[in-house]
Write a structure and sequence with these properties.
single chain, alpha/beta, nine-stranded mixed β-sheet, 23 helices, about 45% helix, about 15% strand
C-alpha cells in the first residue's frame, strides 16, 4: 500500500519538484526513525525504557532539528537532482543540531541512567544524528534511483563513451544522466593515462582507447556517441580521435571549455557537436605582442576592406594594441554598419570606441581616397579590400583590374603622398603562377607595391591561402547545401586547398607587417593541404545525415586543382616566427612597371575583356589561363 502511495506521489510530481514541505516532513520523520534506532541500541539491555523521558528528549531534539533544517535549507533541494552540495547541507545541519542539543544538556548537566550506568547526553546525540545523516542521504539516493528507473518518461537509449576519465568526464556523465531530452547510458570511459586503466568512476569502467575504439567493441555494445570530455585537449589529438570515431560511424561531441559553462556549472545542452572547423584547426600560434604594439600603439591605423572577413578580424585584433585611432574603410554599407555596432557595443572592443572611425569609400575612387588620407593621415595601412571570387572575376576582368590593381595603386600612392610609415597588403596564394584573372590582379598589385617601397613608406605583402568560414568560401557553402538536404557540390574529386582560421591568418598579418622592412613578401605556413572531396565527406559524417550525395560539377573557369604559395623563381628564407617565411623575389624595374601600368590603364578604358587580359598576361608572363576563354591568348605567346 505504501509503495503504491509513493508511486502515485512520484508520478504526480514527474515534471515538477516535490513541494518543500513534503521534503521537510520526510526529513523530520527520518530523524524520528533515527532517534528510535539510537535509543533501542543504547537501552537494549536496560529491560525497561522510560517512555515519558524518551518523549521529552525526542521533542527537544525535534525542535532543535526543525530549527536547524529551516535555517540550513537542506529541504529546499530538488530530490531527484541531489548532489554533493545537498549532501554537505545535510551533514552541516545535523552536526549543528547535535552540537546545540549537547550544549543545552551540558549546561543542565544531564545524564541518562540505565542499569546504574551513566550515558552522557552527547552519546545519545551522536548516535541519533549520525543515523539521521545516513538515512537522509540514503533516502535521496533511493528517490533518485526510483525516479530514474520507474517514473521518468522513457526515451530512446543512446549508449555513450566518454573520452577523458577526469573531473570534466565525471561532471559530463552527471549532466547526461540528468538530461530530460534523451536517455543516455555511459558504457565506459576511455583514457590514455595508464594509471587509470581497469579502475572505475561511479561504477563505470575505464578502458584504453584501443580497447574501445574498434569495430568489435562498438558493435557489441551498440555505441552511438563519443563525448570528448577533455576541454584542454591538444588540437592534433582531438582531430585524431575524432577522425577515428567518424571512421567507425560514431557521432562525436565535446564538452566546451569550463569558461563557457553557465554560472560555473555544466548542463547536457551545452555539449557541442564537433564541427569541420575543429578538424582543420591548428594549434594556436604565438605572436610577438611587443613587436606589434611597437608598430601600431599610439598611431593612426587604416584598414581597407574593413567589413570583410579578414579586414574585420584585423580591426578586432588591432583594438588590443592601443592605436590612437582606427580608420575602418569599406564600400559595403550594411556590413560596415554591422561591424560598427559590434565594435562600439561589445567588450573588449568598446574600450576604444572613441578612437574608431567608420568610412564609406571605394578604393577605386581616387578623389575620395585622397580626401580620406588627407583628413586622417594614417601612419599604418592594412590593405584588405579586394574582389576574391575566381569565377566572378573571370567574367568581369574590368572590375577585377579596376579594384584589385588600380584600387591598390590608389591606396599605395596616397600612403606615399601623405607619409604613411608602413603599408601591409593582404594577398593570396592564387597570385602564384596565376591561372585566373583574380589571381593575376593580385600578382599585379604585389608587383606594384613591391616597387614602391621607400625609406619613408615601407610596403609589405602577406600571402596565404583560404581561410575557414570566410564569406563565400567552401565550408559555408557546404553548410547551406546540407541544410537543404544536399547534394554537396565539388568541382573536382582531386582538388586540394590550404586552410587557415581567420584569427590565425590575421594574427600572422599583424606579425609579418611588424617585421617587414620594405619590399618583402611574407608567406605563411598553411600546414597540410586538404582535399575538398574528403572535406565534403567529413561534413556529411559530422552532420549525422544519411544518403547525402557529393556531385562533381567540373572545374570552373580559371580554377586550379591546387594552389601554390611561391612562384617558380622564388625561394624562401626563415624568419624569427616559425609560421612566417620571407620570399626571395625578383626585383622589378620601377620605370618598366609604370609603363606597363599605363598600358593596362589604356586597355581598361577600352572595356574590352580580351584586351585587358592580354595586357595582364604581358606584365605577368606566368599568368597562364586554365579552363577559360582566355586560354586562346596563351597560344599566341
Amino acid at each position: 500500500m505504501l509503495h503504491k502511495l509513493l508511486f502515485l506521489i512520484a508520478k504526480h510530481y514527474r515534471h515538477a519538484p516535490v513541494p518543500k514541505w513534503i521534503v521537510l516532513a520526510s526529513d523530520l520523520l527520518l530523524f524520528v526513525v533515527a532517534f528510535a534506532i539510537a535509543e533501542i541500541f543504547l537501552y537494549w539491555n536496560s529491560g525497561s525504557i522510560n517512555a515519558a523521558g524518551l518523549t521529552t528528549r525526542l521533542c527537544e531534539m525535534l525542535a532543535i532539528t526543525l530549527f536547524c533544517f529551516l535555517g540550513g535549507g537542506s529541504y529546499k533541494s530538488i530530490i531527484r537532482h541531489s548532489g554533493i552540495n545537498d549532501i554537505l547541507k545535510i551533514l552541516i545541519t545535523n552536526i549543528i543540531a547535535a552540537a546545540i542539543f549537547i550544549a543545552i544538556n551540558a549546561v543542565n548537566n544531564q545524564l541518562r541512567i540505565v542499569d546504574n550506568t551513566y550515558i552522557p547526553c552527547y552519546t545519545e546525540a551522536v548516535f541519533s544524528y549520525s543515523i539521521s545523516i545516513i538515512l537522509m542521504i540514503f533516502f535521496r539516493l533511493l528517490c533518485q534511483r526510483f525516479y530514474n528507473d520507474y517514473i521518468r518518461k522513457r526515451r530512446p537509449r543512446n549508449n555513450v563513451v566518454i573520452f577523458g576519465a577526469g573531473a570534466a568526464g565525471v561532471i559530463a556523465m552527471g549532466a547526461l544522466q540528468q538530461d530530460q531530452t534523451q536517455e543516455y547510458n555511459v558504457v565506459t570511459f576511455i583514457d590514455d593515462d595508464s594509471s587509470k586503466i581497469s579502475q572505475s568512476l561511479n561504477g563505470v569502467p575505464i578502458r584504453r582507447v584501443r580497447d574501445v575504439l574498434n569495430e568489435r567493441y562498438i558493435r557489441n555494445n551498440n555505441i552511438k556517441t563519443v563525448l570528448i570530455a577533455i576541454p584542454s585537449i591538444k588540437v592534433k589529438y582531438k582531430q585524431a580521435i575524432t577522425n577515428r570515431c567518424l571512421d567507425l560511424g560514431l557521432t562525436v561531441k565535446a564538452v566546451p571549455h569550463v569558461k563557457t559553462w553557465i554560472n560555473g556549472t555544466f548542463q547536457a545542452n551545452q555539449i557541442e557537436n564537433i564541427k569541420i572547423e575543429d578538424l582543420l584547426e591548428r594549434e594556436s600560434i604565438q605572436i610577438d605582442n611587443i613587436n606589434i604594439t611597437r608598430e601600431v600603439a599610439n598611431k593612426v591605423v587604416m584598414v581597407t576592406g574593413a567589413a570583410g572577413s579578414i579586414g574585420s578580424e584585423i580591426c578586432r585584433q588591432l583594438t588590443q594594441f592601443a592605436p590612437s585611432r582606427i580608420i575602418m574603410l569599406d564600400q559595403a554599407e550594411s556590413p560596415l554598419y554591422d561591424l560598427q555596432f559590434e565594435l562600439r557595443n561589445q567588450e573588449p572592443y568598446n574600450r576604444i570606441k572613441d578612437q574608431m572611425e567608420f568610412v564609406i569609400a571605394n578604393v577605386k575612387d581616387l578623389r575620395r581616397i585622397d580626401e580620406v588620407f588627407r583628413l586622417y593621415k594614417p601612419e599604418v595601412v592594412y590593405h584588405a579590400a579586394a574582389y576574391k571570387h575566381v569565377p566572378f572575376m573571370e567574367e568581369n576582368p574590368y572590375e577585377a583590374v579596376y579594384v584589385n590593381v588600380f584600387g591598390t595603386k590608389n591606396i599605395a600612392d596616397c600612403a606615399v603622398k601623405y607619409g604613411a610609415r608602413k603599408f601591409v597588403m593582404v594577398s593570396t596564394d592564387k597570385a602564384v603562377n596565376p591561372t585566373n584573372v583574380m589571381g593575376a590582379t593580385k600578382r599585379l598589385a604585389e608587383i606594384y607595391i613591391q616597387s614602391r617601397s621607400t625609406l619613408q613608406t615601407r610596403f609589405v605583402t602577406t600571402r596565404f591561402g583560404n581561410v575557414l568560414g570566410s564569406n563565400g568560401s567552401v565550408i559555408p557553402l557546404f553548410k547551406k547545401q546540407l541544410a537543404n538536404g544536399g547534394p554537396l557540390t565539388v568541382t573536382h574529386r582531386d582538388i586540394i586547398r590550404y586552410f587557415m582560421t581567420i584569427p590565425e591568418a590575421c594574427s600572422l598579418v599583424l606579425e609579418a607587417g611588424a617585421m617587414g622592412e620594405g619590399g618583402d613578401i611574407f608567406v605563411f605556413d598553411m600546414g597540410k593541404p586538404v582535399k575538398i572531396y574528403q572535406l565534403a565527406e567529413r561534413m556529411i559524417q559530422l552532420s549525422g545525415l544519411k544518403n547525402i550525395k557529393i556531385v562533381e560539377t567540373g572545374l570552373r573557369p580559371g580554377e586550379k586543382l591546387y594552389e601554390e604559395l611561391l612562384v617558380t623563381k622564388e625561394n624562401t628564407i626563415p624568419t624569427h616566427h616559425p609560421k612566417i617565411m620571407r620570399a626571395q623575389v625578383r626585383k622589378n624595374d620601377l620605370h618598366e612597371i609604370d609603363k606597363s601600368f599605363d598600358e593596362l590603364s589604356h586597355a581598361l578604358e577600352s572595356l574590352n575583356d580580351m584586351s585587358i587580359v592580354a595586357c595582364m598576361k604581358a606584365i605577368v608572363p606566368e599568368f597562364i589561363s586554365n579552363n577559360s576563354i582566355y586560354c586562346q591568348l596563351d597560344t599566341c605567346k
